[in-house]
Task: structure prediction
Amino acid sequence: MKLLEERILRDAEVISPDVIKVDMFLNHQIDVDLLVEIGREFYDCFADKRDKINKILTIEASGIGIACIAAQCFSVPVLFAKKGNNRNVGNDVYSSDIFSFTKNTTTTVSVSKKYLSSDDHVLIIDDFLANGEAVRGLKSIIDNAGATLEGVGIVIEKGFQKGGAALRAEGIRVESLAIIKSVKDGKPVF
Ligand code: 5GP
Result:
């Protein structure tokens, strides 16, 4: 997605060889006009699945805004996995442990069984794809609910990390709007 690549080149900060900060438009301050374009792009990428997808699943916090705007295009609800030990979610939950290499911590995320069932056809949406841990955690929640994963929509994939290739090799459909192949002289290369 050209508009997104241009924005990444203009505003993203490479803060370590494998961590890219996009606080200017996505992860702290949010450019809603750009988010609307991102939502439409996901809607186009998964045009063939529009009739199937009946729920979007993401993870708090940075996935929520993106998922909500995309969900408006698909006219489906957003479900977000909550972090922490079933905080406010109750005990009747599907949970998964997700390791974050950016924070070097493992977090338990949970989704209430009330909102995910074997009838659901789910699109996962997240801001970044690195090693694929977040997607795997969400997929295991979907699998435990007996729901169907229809695909994964990612705003920024870091193609130099292993997640995208590994998930695709497993047959999971992953559509990324920008894929950073490498970082050269402190700038992302697509
Ligand atoms: P993964 O689970 O694929 O290893 O990493 C994806 C998750 O970690 C995303 O939910 C995202 O929030 C966070 N993440 C991974 N890499 C980056 C990065 O370079 N920048 C930012 N801002 N978040 C990242």
